[in-house]
Amino acid sequence: MKYILLLILGLSGLVFAEDAEIREEVMSVKEAVLELNRDLYELERELLSPATTRAAFHLTLNHGEFFEPLAVEVSVDGTLELQHLYTERQVKALRMGAVQPLGDLNLAPGKHDVTVIIRGVDHLGQGRELTLTEIVTKTGKPLITELLIVDREELQSARLELKYW
Amino acid sequence: MRKLLLLLLLPACVWAADPQQSPLSEDDLDFDLEALGVADNAEERLLRGNFYFSYLTGEYYRTLYYLERWQELVGADEAPETEAAVMRAAVFLSLGLEDQAEAVFYKVFEQGGNASGDAWYFLAQRLFSAGYYDRAELAARNALKAAPGVSASYLQELLYLLVSSISEQDRVDEARDALKGMLDKNIWTGYARYNLILAMIRENYRSRDLEAVVNESAYYLPDDEEGRALRDRTLLIAGVAAMEREKHKMANRYFRDISLESVFTPPALLHYGWNLLAEWRYEDAIQPWRILQQMYDEYNPSVVESYLAVPHTLELVDAVNQSVLAYERIEERLSVMVDELKAVNQKDSLGDWLDEWRNANRSQDWGWQRQRLSDLPESQISRFAQGLLDDEDFVRELAVLHDLDRMRDDLNKAFRDLGLWAEILEERQRHLAELGGEALLDKLEERQMDVLRKILAVQDRLLDEDETVFSYASVADKARIDRLRNVVPSVTQLQKVGTPTRDLSIYKERWRRVRGLQLWEIYKHQPQRKWDTERDHMILRSETDRLFRQLENTRTSLSWADSSWRGFPQQVGAMQRRIANADAGIARLQDNQEELLNQLARDYLTGMDERLTLYLAQSRLALARLYDDSLQRETSEFDPEQQKTAEGTPKGTGNVDEETGTEAEVQYQDGTTVETGEQAE
Q1: Are B217 and B194 in contact (CB under 8 A)?
Q2: Has residue A88 got a pLDDT over 80?
Q3: Mind listing the pLDDT tens digit for each residue in B575-607?
Q4: Residue B34 contacts A where some CB pair is shorter than 8 Å
């Protein structure tokens, strides 16, 4: 009886060891795939927009009490370059202070006309549109831009600003 | 018997109630990244915001990418480092990388430092889901005392995590103290109370206290679908616990209060019947089992168990004929079920069953998203394997298989994408070479210089124009001036050959008048014409300057383009090799996992087969015994000696112990054994 018990214990120990090994192997594969995906994302970003021509567009929502974005369009020099439709989850993330990476564009050095149209609803549920046209200058360094939706409490509305570095 | 029943139920209730995350609300506005106290520059701020955005929207590859970029940018600054480490641990846990998360988690605690309440909250949430209750408790406590604190909308969930983490560690008094900080009517409080009740049951806590928490929980839960389901779940475990403590009346009250519309109804009806049986209320005990059999699928484990419970009870009330009929029906039904089970318990059919589920979940991501995986397809196998589908280990292994499937899909897609990138790179390099960019630019530059020279000539002309009498005269003006000039020789000729009677003064006067008018006309338009010409000239100059800059930029772009593509084909090739290696590794694991799941399902169905066969044997044995009893009773009417023997034969449905001649136990589908005959009473 004692030997049978020992055998059972030994076998169960073997099974646990095998389970742990498989689990560890799956974990390490997951980690490898994760790293691979991260590197792929970086490589694709470099391929799509090299640092010298890159213009990165971001969108932030300052409180967002008087405006909720539904869609955004960014045109550069009259050509529609970026557009995005928002999910509820993304709007909530923006409201929590997160910054949306809208996308990267390739721009030649020099001045460019940037036109942004953001469609959404105000705090009363009415459709609203925020528009902005500005000239930005691209140098040899990557251009970083931030589209900022700011509440104007005194007017119970919002306005759109563009900052770039 | 009751102890065994409780043991049967408890594993199903052992895992903590971990409801889906509630939707965020407007209160989330007070989550303020700026309040972290980190003096970021714009790029740091945007990167940190990108990192949170990708985390909050569930894009974890990007989350890690932004996190790495952010850390590179901020360097060794302590505060963001801790914040990043906490969030990295949360991301790892979200992706099911518990070991990596654990390493990060310990590092954070060893080093100390500050992180926001929300970062700790995210970590606590993931740690609790992964079953690291002690660490979840620490993270929840950190979230509560962090500055900036946790968002208002997360507070109740955070307190739930704290109470539940403490409850899971069986520290009931502390959990009850922590529970006091929660809002009574919030659903999270309901889940926290549920986990507290489980801990109280495990710790064999005082009945009065347990009853108070159960009543409180049932009273405050919201009257919606989620609240009602949680109420049923709470009452079920409370009822079973009361059964275990032989408080049958209380148990009856709990079981009666459970609705007939939730997933907890079948076990509740089954246990209600057993509880009534324990009170010797045999006829009443049959009612819940009848309802159970009418309302639920015959393959449900509770229903199968109730099949044998009914005739057993009938036998206890001496309804022998009804008992025999019931046993016969069960024997017939179980025979069919055993045959069906043997037919489906094959490697190929189980493989198809798994494949159908894998295909149904193709659109789901891996990692955290796997919580949304669908149920296994409705089929005969699923009906038999209902218990297996509730088994945490099996579900976890299924999730691993799904993760491996999706990872392979991801890798294959990435491999294809990289192939396309390699083609594009080749195409662009060829195009660049064919373009002859340098030569083309030289030509364009020459043309631009020609244009510039012409513009300079125009500029010279404009300078000269100011010096002329008829400056900025139009073409028509010039034509008229020419005509006037042509008239002068004619008048002079007429004067030479003229007679005394010919008076030329009129012509001269007219010529002078016309000349004056013409000059007036020219001088009148001269300022406007001069202005227009100079403006056009300036526009032309700026246009040529712009062209020149454009040419220079194009030259720069050309040199960048050439340098930008260098090294990329090699990088793409290296990445493709990495993908191929990873894919081979995952394919091997995938095969192993498939085999493991198939084996688990086969083992379960084989166990089920054995159990059903045992039920079948027991029902046949009971039938044989009942017929035998009947026969002996008939014969004993004629033989006084045999009559005495027949009176000594015990009743029951179980196996007859060969040595003692008394009944043994009936073993039911889910491992429960029930004492039969007089002993059960």
Answers
A1: yes
A2: yes
A3: 888 888 888 888 888 888 888 889 989 999 898
A4: yes
Is residue B93 pLDDT above 80, yes or no? no
Which pTM was predicted? 0.56
Residue range A1-10: mean pLDDT, rounded = 43
Q: What is the mean pLDDT of residues B217-241?
A: 90
> Do B421 and A47 lie within an 8 Å CB cutoff?
yes
- The answer to whether B233 and B217 are in contact (CB under 8 A) is no
Neighbour tally for B531: CB within 10 Å:
11
Distance of CA B35 to CAs A139, B63, B83, B152, B160, Å?
33, 21, 13, 15, 25
Contact (CB<8Å) A146/B407 = no
What residues have CB less than 8 Å from B40, skipping those under 6 apart? B48, B74
A79 touching chain B per CB within 8 A: no
Q: Which of B24, B31, B400 sits opposite A97 (nearest CB)?
A: B31
Interface test mutation site (partner B, options A21, A40, A48, A57, max chain B beta carbons within 10 A):
A40
CA B231 from centroid of its chain's CA atoms: 26
Q: Note which residues in 39-58 of chain A have CB less than 8 A from chain B.
A: 39-44, 46-47, 50, 52-53, 58
- Under an 8 A CB cutoff, do A92 and B95 touch? no
DSSP characters for A17-43? Answer: HHHHHHHHHHHHHHHHHHHHHHHHHHH
Which residue type does B147 have? A
Q: Scanning the structure block, which residue is given the tokens 């980190």?
A: B38
Question: Residue B204 corresponds to which amino acid?
Answer: N
SS3 A57: strand
- Interface with chain A: mutation pick from B104, B406, B407, highest number of A CBs within 10 Å: B407
Helices and strands of chain B, counted as H and E runs: 26, 2
Instruction: Please state, in angstroms and rounded to a whole number, the distance separating the CA atoms of residues B240 and B267.
Output: 10
Chain B partners within 8 Å of A138 (Cβ): none
Confidence of residue A5 (pLDDT cuts 50, 70, 90): very low
pLDDT of B95: 67
Contact criterion met (CB < 8 Å) for B568 and A99: no
B415 lies within 8 A of chain A by CB: no
> What pLDDT, in 10s, does the model give residues B547-565?
888 788 777 777 766 666 6
The rounded distance, in Å, linking the Cα atoms of A89 and A108 is 34
Closest CA to B572 of A113, A9, A48, A131: A48
Q: What integer is the mean pLDDT of B327-353?
A: 87
Instruction: Find where tokens 């405050």 sit.
Output: B220
Over residues B26-52, the pLDDT tens digits come to 333 334 444 444 445 778 788 888 888
**Looking at the DSSP assignment, which residues form a beta bridge with residue A157?**
A152
Write the residue in B28, B31, B99 that is nearest to A27 by C-beta. Answer: B99
* pLDDT value at residue B109: 64
